[in-house]
């Protein structure tokens, strides 16, 4: 992508309305534009990151054996009357009436609708286990939408729903989700710690939230610092293996880690004092097992192997896809701007031409761009006729993890410069070597 032809409305000034760094940088880097309180347009750069995050979520869900579908944003009120949640949900639910005076709502979550799909099509235990998920916009009329995409009213969520024949199978589904989430967040360069939590309006009493530690987080959390040493790494998991998934869950749930809702001071104080930590955290996901809370009232029943009709055991599992952009920036930035982890960066590398219009510099930049494209890596090439300082400032603000700087002086010696956004370190090398290095870095991402 050539910057001269792109749409990147970078702001020079700090927007007054942004209280936290991620919101500030998302506005300044031209990633989002607020349309109403808690409702945003995703400008091209922000949209690219959103799509990257979605892609990682999809890949890890499919790897765990879960099946994507897509349900609508608008739902009929009657479905929610069946579960009893239409009245319970209160003012957070956006209620709409169509021209025929039919009551509808903009979905805040999809337990009822997925249960309706299940009961229409599944009759036998032989169709189980089944986990269906989608990535779809949700609406919650939050009292205080704030911090940009972090607490929006309209936001993108991955929500998955498992259907199982009994408690043990449903707990395996719960464990499978926890394991796949650990891997998902790590691929985004995040450490998200599963913590015992409260279930709120979704229901059930078996639930974990995934929290990214950050001073700007809305939750207060208490944990044993030993948990921050755990790494998922390159493990290859057999998601059908119950013992293997349960062992990984045990590894992450044995050290104490709880939100303020479930915090127990007496247990916390049994941890060695130097490992007792209190912090703030951003909730980037939550998993629930709630048994037959929806299947029973809504008649999601299957025939078991004894010929009896039994309600299925269910759970639901969410990832805050749009919130993740804010969480990643909170966890990875400096005073110049964002520092994207390679897994989610909008472009793998930026090319800065120090002397636009110089024949050799232009040709070298174009050759590097072409060579990267041939390797499936699309660079953002700053081909504007602008000062080097301004180009560097833009690249630092938008946070691409790598920059290739090309200028006539270096080229005379056959060199360009490869710079890491994270460390600020630069290395001179031939254009071919720079392309090869970038390809090598992204081969493992
Ligand atoms: N149905 C269940 C799981 S699929 C559910 O709705 N869970 S939830 O309420 O915990 O939401 C899932 C995730 O969505 C949260 O962990 C959070 O990361 C994200 N989320 C919730 N509310 C908002 C909001 N107002 N703005 C941005 N993200 C949100």
3D architecture notes:
The structure is a single chain. It is built from 14 helices and 23 strands. The chain folds into two domains: 3-338, Bira Bifunctional Protein, Domain 2 (BirA Bifunctional Protein, domain 2, 2-Layer Sandwich), CATH 3.30.930; 349-443, Anticodon-binding domain (Rossmann fold, 3-Layer(aba) Sandwich), CATH 3.40.50.800. The strands form six sheets. Strands 3, 7, 8, 9, 10, 11, 12, 13 and 16 form a nine-stranded mixed sheet that branches. A hairpin with a 2-residue loop joins strand 1 and strand 2 (39-42). The two termini are 21 Å apart. The protein has 445 residues and is of the alpha+beta class. It is globular. Helix content is 33%, strand content 27%. The protein has helices spanning 21-28, 44-63, 77-83, 85-88, 111-121, 167-187, 242-253, 265-268, 295-298, 321-331, 359-374, 388-398, 408-412, 431-443, and strands spanning 32-36, 39-42, 67-68, 74-76, 94-97, 103-106, 130-139, 154-164, 192-196, 206-213, 219-224, 257-259, 276-291, 301-303, 309-311, 313-320, 333-334, 337-338, 350-353, 380-382, 402-406, 416-420, 426-429. The protein binds 5'-O-(N-(L-cysteinyl)-sulfamoyl)adenosine. The site of 5'-O-(N-(L-cysteinyl)-sulfamoyl)adenosine has 20 residues, from strand 8, strand 13, strand 16 and helix 10.
Output the CATH homologous superfamily of the largest domain.
Bira Bifunctional Protein, Domain 2
Structural class: alpha+beta
CATH top level assignment of the largest domain: Alpha Beta
Largest sheet: 9 strands, mixed
Task: Determine the strand fraction and express it as a percent band.
Answer: 25-35%
Helix content: 25-40%
Number of helices: 14
CATH topology of the largest domain: BirA Bifunctional Protein, domain 2
Bound molecules: 5'-O-(N-(L-cysteinyl)-sulfamoyl)adenosine
Number of strands: 23
Count up the domains: 2
CATH architecture of the largest domain: 2-Layer Sandwich
- The radius of gyration over CA amounts to 24 Å
From the spread of the alpha carbons, the general shape counts as globular
């Amino acid at each position: 992508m050539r910057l001269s032809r792109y749409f990147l409305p970078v702001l020079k000034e700090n927007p007054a309305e942004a209280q936290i760094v991620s919101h500030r940088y998302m506005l300044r880097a031209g990633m989002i534009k607020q349309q109403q309180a808690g409702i945003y347009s995703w400008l091209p750069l922000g949209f690219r990151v959103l799509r990257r995050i979605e892609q990682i979520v999809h890949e890890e869900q499919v790897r765990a054996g879960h099946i994507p579908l897509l349900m609508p944003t608008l739902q009929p009120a009657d479905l929610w009357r069946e579960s009893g949640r239409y009245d319970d949900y209160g003012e957070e639910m956006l209620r709409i009436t169509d021209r025929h005076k039919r009551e509808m709502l903009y979905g805040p979550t999809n337990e009822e609708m997925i249960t309706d799909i299940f009961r229409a099509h599944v009759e036998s235990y032989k169709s189980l286990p089944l986990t269906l998920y989608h990535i779809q916009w949700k609406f919650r009329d939050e009292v205080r939408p704030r911090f940009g995409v972090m607490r929006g009213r309209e936001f993108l969520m991955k929500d998955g729903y498992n259907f199982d024949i009994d408690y043990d199978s449903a707990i395996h589904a719960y464990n499978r989700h926890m394991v796949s989430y650990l891997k998902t967040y790590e691929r985004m360069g995040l450490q998200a710690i599963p913590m015992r939590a409260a279930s709120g309006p979704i229901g059930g009493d078996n639930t974990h939230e995934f929290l990214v530690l950050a001073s700007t987080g809305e939750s207060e959390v208490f944990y044993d610092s030993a948990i921050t040493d755990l790494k998922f790494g390159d493990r290859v998991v057999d998601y059908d293996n119950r013992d293997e998934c349960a062992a990984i869950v045990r590894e992450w749930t044995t050290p104490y880690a709880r939100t303020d809702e479930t915090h127990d001071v007496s247990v916390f104080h049994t941890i060695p004092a130097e490992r007792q930590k209190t912090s703030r955290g951003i909730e980037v996901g939550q998993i629930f097992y709630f048994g037959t809370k929806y299947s029973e009232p809504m008649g999601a029943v299957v025939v078991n192997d004894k010929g009896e009709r039994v309600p299925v055991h269910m759970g639901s599992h969410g990832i805050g896809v749009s919130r993740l952009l804010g969480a990643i920036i909170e966890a990875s930035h400096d005073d110049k701007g964002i520092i994207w982890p390679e897994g989610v960066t909008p472009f793998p590398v930026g090319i800065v031409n120090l002397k636009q219009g110089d024949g050799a510099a232009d040709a070298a930049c174009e050759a590097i761009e072409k060579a990267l494209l041939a390797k499936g890596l699309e660079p953002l090439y700053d081909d504007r006729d602008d000062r080097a300082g301004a180009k560097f400032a833009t690249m630092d603000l938008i946070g691409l993890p790598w920059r290739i700087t090309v200028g006539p002086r270096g080229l005379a010696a056959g060199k360009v410069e490869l710079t890491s956004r994270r460390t600020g370190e630069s290395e001179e090398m031939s254009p071919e070597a720079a392309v090869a290095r970038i390809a090598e870095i992204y081969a493992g991402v």
